[in-house]
């Protein structure tokens, strides 16, 4: 059989390896910038959500459709551009996004006009085109005359991704042996903000590139028409100190590019892309991709969190955590882009987390099924079928989940049957049985235990109550409670040869004698799990032992004493020749002792019969029985001058009982009253009614009984208040007989007495 510890460690090891594998996969994908195209789509959506207000210091002069319509078709004369440059003299820097790669052959003097205008302005930057495809290494420069007149030049090449979208910009490149800056960087240097340019260049990667932080969708930047500036419609104050970009905007002539913020339109013009780069530099914002190992960490961390949740939480909670991670990863990527200008490709982490739940669920299901198969085999091997169950073969290890669930359902039915079998067996035990856990709290009680505590007069203990509370309410002896508490705590028994932790005779608060046994319970691994406690009521056995001792004492003393006296009297009569009167006295004494012996035997037999006989109860009239008892004992009372009478009227009082036993019980009470009453007194007999019972009262005017003697008055062989009376015989069985009859008929007997004031004995019986 497999080691339980090993079976528990195996799923843990497999979960660890699965976690490491998923985290490594996510890290590798993250290091290689995620899943490419899908990451680009997510990036585009994130950029659209991180818009900013347009920089008011940047102005785009657009060659729009209105300008084309007013100034004629493109290309325009360079003298017109010269006029526009003159209008822009107050600008901080002017970026002319127009290519002048060849001299003007139609209007030869226009080149000079434009060059003079560029010199007068002194802050104009002309574009350069770097050709890497058609003529590798070629640089598309403006004509020499214009290049010398311009303040600076800068390249305007767009960096296009594989899907045709412009997301990046090259700020500075080494080309044809020279270091070339982007048009926006050159404009910042011309405008006196080279510090902004340098900070932006430092944010670029090793290739001098950044992710363009687009401020908004197309036409987001502040734009004015070329025509309106040329006419002077725009006040000079609107141009003073601004970065002005002049570029094509009209339909069919602009260099539009798809960008992350232009999905709803065809694209965004090149001049506006330059404006966005310029604003990024002035705002000190540049989106960057972190180092590969940072991206790997960003991808692996959510996978580790998902695996930890799957390891520690319930399936429902783990699913919620996984869904939260799937939603949180893009949110985290967007927050990092918006507030830290870092773009972590999220698809690697998303793929890792998405794979976690199904793979981990598969692993958990395989581990659960494997454990289920092992436990089912163990259950079938260690616990045979009960309650006539058929032994069902185990499912095939390659069976489906439904088959395994069916097998588990049958196994659980067997366990329930076994538990019911054990529970019914414990409930059927005649002794009170309690089961406690290792913390000393009760976990099970059988029906006999419930009945025992009800007879004790306390509420049956509830499941989960501590044993100390139960022992305090049950056992009266402190030392016994401590010993049982030690046994319930799992301590080793003092007698190593006995499996019982406690085996002792105790007495409860009701005075019942009990045998208390306490046995430990252990798990399959041998660990202490609790105790089983049984309470066996041996009060009947102890009572029988006491009765046996009393019987032996009765035979050895009360029966033997009169017989010895008779033998002594007979021997005296045989030895001497006494006078006739003496012989007559001897015979009288022998007769008296013989009658006493007969009465003792008769009382003992009737008491034994009352205790053991099966009573066939019938409806009886207590009034008639009382009148008969008075009539039977009237001669004895009359002989001593005692008035024996019944209080009139005697009611018809029906009770259920045995006529012979009740008649003798009433006679015993009246006979005792006659024996212990002085001559010339009165004995009253009456019947009173109370709810549900009849009370038969016998009142005498005798010497009374001391309070300390009342407690043992109804015990067998107990004679109270007769030590000075030689004329009263008996062994103290009459009142014990009365009590036995009353209790067996569901009633009771009680006495009220004070020395010198007489006694009242009351027999209380249920109504029929």
How are the elements arranged and paired?
Blueprint: H1 4-31, H2 37-48, E1 58-63, H3 65-71, H4 78-87, E2 93-96, H5 109-121, E3 124-131, E4 138-140, H6 144-149, E5 152-155, E6 168-170, E7 172-175, E8 178-181, H7 183-190, H8 194-203, E9 209-211, E10 223-225, H9 226-231, E11 243-248, E12 256-257, E13 268-269, H10 270-283, H11 292-312, H12 315-340, H13 347-382, H14 401-427, E14 432-437, E15 442-445, H15 447-456, H16 467-474, H17 478-488, E16 502-507, E17 513-522, E18 528-537, H18 539-575, H19 580-612, E19 618-621, H20 622-639, E20 643-646, E21 654-657, H21 659-675, E22 682-690, E23 693-699, H22 707-710, H23 734-744, E24 748-753, E25 759-766
Parallel strand pairs: 1-10, 1-11, 2-3, 2-11, 3-5, 20-22
Antiparallel strand pairs: 3-4, 6-9, 7-8, 12-13, 14-15, 14-18, 16-17, 17-18, 19-21, 22-23, 23-25, 24-25
Helix pairs in contact: 1-11, 1-13, 2-12, 4-5, 7-8, 7-10, 8-10, 11-12, 11-13, 12-13, 13-14, 16-17, 18-19, 19-23, 20-21, 21-23
